[in-house]
Design a protein that fits this description.
Structural class: mainly alpha
Largest sheet: 2 strands, antiparallel
Order of helices and strands: EEHEHHEHHHHHHEEH
Strand order of the largest sheet: 1-2
Radius of gyration: 35 Å
């Protein structure tokens, strides 16, 4: 609105709010501040939130694929069997010899787990790691030197991982495997029977050695058709570079005491000592 001043010149009229008007303005200002605070607080809260801390999943050396699947299900809080069912869709980078079976290529290591991790992504992470480690020049060169494929080397490493009582024994166990293969002898290793029967035990019966399975290394010569677990770095090194020696037999008589020999009669005496120790400890 325009009015005139006392001297006749137009001037703008100053509008003074009434008491009620002042109250409305005051309440409006409070409301604006309140709304501003309501918007600001969540923003600050989001900014102050710490980034998600990744958990970890440890896969120890020698675990079978079936055990890895269970561990992944538990780590991701998935229903039992979810990870195993996810294998076909995971598009894992496996060698053709594996025929889609990731056994041996779920590399044992410590893996990060977040809310975004899926069974497929975790399996791919493991297989990618295995492919990089097993594709290293020294592994491929060692496989060629031993006249076996890298996949067969992984299988040998899985046997070494399962059979060796200590890391220091791995090279000797590997030598026994290579010596038996070179001579056309069956491997006769209990670890292959345990894999076929989905168990872990030191007690092998005569009946066990007669089971009809491609993993029965008592009745079938050569390597089992797949690895029997997921070997680690040390077992792979032993597989490509076995300790020199003539050994054809071994038995762990007591923890830390594995006897290697090329003489069958000596091996039988060692086995008898093993059986006595088992009976005395109540293990058989």
């Amino acid at each position: 609105m325009v009015n005139e001043s006392p001297d006749g010149r137009p001037s703008r009229r100053r509008i003074r709010p009434t008491r009620r008007g002042r109250l409305v303005l005051f309440l409006g200002a409070v409301l604006v501040l309140a709304l501003g605070a309501a918007v600001l607080v969540p923003l600050l809260t989001r900014q102050e939130q710490a980034p998600e801390q990744a958990r970890t999943l440890v896969i120890p050396e020698g675990r079978r694929a079936s055990q890895v699947y269970v561990a992944v299900d538990e780590a991701l809080h998935e229903p039992a069997g979810t990870t195993e069912k996810a294998v076909p869709a995971a598009d894992l980078p496996l060698p053709a010899e594996a025929k889609g079976n990731p056994e041996g290529y779920l590399f044992p290591a410590t893996y990060p787990v977040t809310s975004d991790t899926t069974p497929e992504s975790l399996l791919r992470y493991m297989a990618d790691t295995a492919l990089k480690r097993f594709g290293a020049d020294h592994i491929t060169a060692g496989a060629q030197r031993n006249d076996v494929s890298v996949y067969q080397t992984v299988t040998i490493a899985s046997l070494v991982q399962a059979e060796a009582d200590t890391v220091s024994d791995m090279g000797k166990v590997s030598r026994v495997v290579h010596n038996r293969l070179d001579r056309g002898m069956p491997l006769q290793m209990d670890s292959t029977l345990n894999y076929a029967l989905n168990r872990s035990t030191l007690d092998t019966t005569t009946g066990d050695t007669r089971i009809d399975s491609p993993y029965n290394s008592y009745t079938r010569k050569g390597l089992p058709p797949t690895p029997i677990g997921n070997p680690g770095e040390q077992a792979m090194v032993a597989a490509i570079d076995p300790t020199p020696g003539p050994w054809l037999y071994f038995v762990t008589v007591a923890p830390g005491d594995t006897r290697f020999t090329a003489d069958y009669a000596e091996h039988q005496r060692n086995v008898a000592e093993f059986n006595r120790n088992r009976r005395q400890s109540g293990g058989g």
